[in-house]
Amino acid sequence: MSAGKLSINRACAVGIAFLGLLSIVTIISAYLFVRNPAIVWLCLLFILLVFFCAALFVAFLRHKLVLFSDNLCQTIDDMLNGAATPPQIYEEESLFYKINHRLAHLYDVLRESQKSMAKERADLQELISDISHQVKTPISNLKMVNATLLEQPMPKEKQREFLQASSGQLEKLDFLMQAMIKTSRLETGVILLDIKIQPLYDTLAAALGGILLNAERKHIHVSVDCPEDIILPHDRKWTSEALFNILENAVKYTPAGGTIRVSVQSWEFYVKIDITDSGKGIAENRQGIIFKRFYREEEVHDIEGIGIGLYLAREIITMQGGYIKVTSTVGCGSTFSVFLPYR
User: Residues 134-157: pLDDT tens digits?
Assistant: First the structure.
């Protein structure tokens, strides 16, 4: 019988038989050498005592092995069934405790990994659903325009109108893809922020430069109050992108002839950038979800946009240790407060 196939019970039986045979040989040898019955009885008593102690030790060891194997099997079953917590062994620092402790740690790691995978799958499914929803309308419009141009004869001026409409839908798709690429790179860490100590004035000026033309078209008055001596560590390119997204929303949702006011204040630990508009405002029950990716209020779907600007702005500011706060009253405009930390 090979050692690999020898069970614990058989090993104990073989050990006991060997010790019994050795004891008999020892007793016979002692009697033959000393010829003294008292010595033989002492040897027999000692051997019985050794057997008793060995039996107690083997029984204790077997009990511990059985208990540990039961707990091990129970823990593995719980891991397979997805139980909340595995059974714990609370006792002195022993081999069984060490193995159980590491198994429990492995169990926690596996559960966290499963939760992370489930969250990633849910996020991916939500992202795919959002992208499908966003591209469905422009693709449908492009198909309709293309079918009309192919199937129906029309004058060149009418063809030009259809082609301009098609160009607008293509630009919307291109804008969506560029926004998704930026978001994906930020979330996955492909793009690393280049944080340097530099003036905030130039960063804010770059963001304002992107919205002044549209503001002028709607006759929106833009006022800026930003001290030129405010210097703090930040990434100029991406911070400008975040501020531009907030300012662009302010221009979109502020009616013609309205106002946008930008003010910057230096606090002890943060720089606060307030962007206040005189637009339609945001209901209180929606202020917590406007930063969600692709979120747009139902009543503004006729205004150009895909609902990713505020989401991207929050990601950029959060990655720099800051945060964004919004206060708004319906019909009285909104104020987006951007807080950037002094590091």
Answer: 677 778 878 888 888 888 888 888
Q: For 36-79, what is each residue's pLDDT tens digit?
A: 677 767 777 777 787 788 778 878 877 777 777 777 777 677 76
For residue 264, give the nearest of 294, 228, 291 by alpha carbon. Answer: 228
Report the C-alpha gap between 250 and 275 in whole angstroms: 8
Q: How far apart are CA 163 and CA 243, in angstroms?
A: 33
> pTM of the prediction?
0.57
Domain ranges of the chain: 3-87, 111-188, 196-341
- Type of residue found at 243: L
Q: CATH assignment of 196-341, given 2.30.30.110, 3.40.1400.10, 3.30.565.10, 3.40.47.10?
A: 3.30.565.10
Phi-psi region of 51 (alpha: psi -120 to 50; beta: other; left: phi over 0): alpha
CA dihedral for 117, 123, 127, 133, sign (positive or negative): positive
pLDDT tens profile 167-211? 877 877 777 777 777 777 766 666 678 889 999 999 999 999 988
